[in-house]
Amino acid sequence: MNFRKKCDFMIQTVDFLILDLIQNKLRCKFLDSLMVKFSSLGDGGIVWIAISFLLICYKKYRQAGILILVGLIMGVLIGNCLLKNIICRPRPCWINRAVSLFNSDTVRLFISVLPYYVIIHCRSRFVAH
What are the angstrom distances between the C-alpha of 56 and each of 50, 74, 108? Predict the structure, then answer.
């Protein structure tokens, strides 16, 4: 087995361990419905695009708004256009049909984490001294 296949096998093993844990221990009607609603808030990055435009309107927060927009664009270009085509890794739910997942992907994760980083990084400028 070559190195790439070994890595793929190890990643899939960890994926299935985590997904099986979620399927068997954390699933219930309440959490399932909550997760669907919570996940849909970030569809297309609309919330963060709106927040970044709002930040751009205020001179004090303009840099953070621009950084968030640039980061969102980079996340889509790097994640969707580059990495997904290079890695071409099937999702665990495509391999193991017993695991059902909501529509989620890494780009959404990046889009949701990036603004927090920008705000924390620029926080010293936002806080009055």
Answer: 10, 18, 22
- Own/partner pairs for 22-31, CB < 8 Å, 24+ apart? 23/98, 23/99, 23/100
In one-letter notation, the amino acid at residue 57 is C
Residue for token pair 């985590």: 18
Do 110 and 80 touch, CB atoms closer than 8 A? no
What three-state secondary structure class fits 10? helix
How distant, in Å, are the alpha carbons of 71, 104, 112, 118, 127 from that of 68? 5, 21, 10, 7, 18
Amino acid at 28: C
Single-letter amino acid code for the residue at 84 = K
pLDDT along the chain (129 residues), means of 10: 80 84 82 77 76 91 87 82 79 67 57 70 59
Query: Which H or E run includes 32?
Result: helix 29-40
Q: What whole-number distance in Å separates Cα of residue 58 and Cα of residue 50?
A: 13
- pTM across the whole model: 0.55
Give the Cα separation of 116 and 109 in Å (integer). 12
